[in-house]
Amino acid sequence: MIRLRIAFALILCGACAWAQKESLPIGPGDLVTVQVLEAPELTQHPRVTDAGYVPLMVGGPVRVAGLTPEQAAAAVRQALIDGHYLLNPHVIVTDDQQATQNVTVMGQVQHPGAYPIETPRTVLDVLALAGGVTNLADRRITIQRHGSKEKIDYFLSNKSTTALDENVKVDPGDTVLVPQIDVVYVMGDVPRPGGYPMATNDGTLSLLQAVTLAGSQEPHAIPNSTRLIRKQPDGTYVEMKIALGKMEKGKEADIALRPNDIIYIPFSFIRNIGTSLGGLVTAATSATIYRY
């Protein structure tokens, strides 16, 4: 009889070994099974609490949210040892039913919402489920784990190889947030006046880069009377005169732009009459946003 019990325990342990290799973390609301091979009477099927704990028959509550089944088994085992219930228990934890199988994608994506996934997927796959990112998507994406609430940063690089190589996994129940990117505006006598996202790999954009994106100034523009309008922390605006022509010839240094900066390249004198700071700020808020 003793030999039969030992053999049964070994078979059970072998059968559950695959489950212990599961890498998907346990989350609040999941239904789990906790088995102690040396004490079958301690087998139970608790649901993980909102706080992330399983209430054990003996050993008290043990936090398992954010842990894989293998890690959760180790935590339960340690609780039984620390409570002096068993000297060397062998514990198996299986995640029988997950509370959620959706991943939530919010922010600057084409179709925000919740999408069902059964297994971990790459962040690129998840973004594709939501139709991809919009013109105003920031490349600095945040993933929040559903169990531990850990926040993971992912940078969607312009370089395809980097974006693929550094791709991270998104688990069922996770939340993916794509924030809005910072924008600068080029107004006045340029071919494509409007807003331009600061979508470079380092998230910066210089004045000359922005003007180039807008098609540079038209032939009748007055580049050396260019104005840079910058919003201050108190909500007011300041204007700086920029000698764009000298800057383009390398006689003056380029300027790093800040989010929401407005570059205004004047028209000829007659067309430029009546262009006030307030008018430019208002025009920028309704300007077309270009993607490049």
Question: Can you tell me about this structure?
Answer:
The protein is α+β, with helices and mostly antiparallel strands. The protein folds into three domains: 2-97, wza like fold (2-Layer Sandwich), CATH 3.30.1950.10; 102-178, Outer membrane lipoprotein wza domain like (Outer membrane lipoprotein wza fold like); 183-285, Outer membrane lipoprotein wza domain like (Outer membrane lipoprotein wza fold like), CATH 3.10.560.10. Helices cover 23% and strands 25% of the residues. It has seven helices and 16 strands. Strand 12 and strand 13 form a beta hairpin. The longest helix has 19 residues, at 2-20. The protein is rod-shaped. Mean pLDDT is 84; it is low at 1-12 and 14-19.
Give a quick rundown of the structure:
The chain is an alpha+beta fold and 292 residues long.
Give a topology summary.
Layout: H1 2-20, E1 31-36, E2 53-55, E3 61-63, H2 69-82, E4 91-97, E5 102-107, E6 113-116, E7 121-122, H3 123-129, E8 140-144, E9 151-155, H4 160-165, E10 169-170, E11 175-178, E12 183-188, E13 194-197, H5 207-213, E14 226-231, E15 237-242, H6 244-248, E16 262-265, H7 277-285
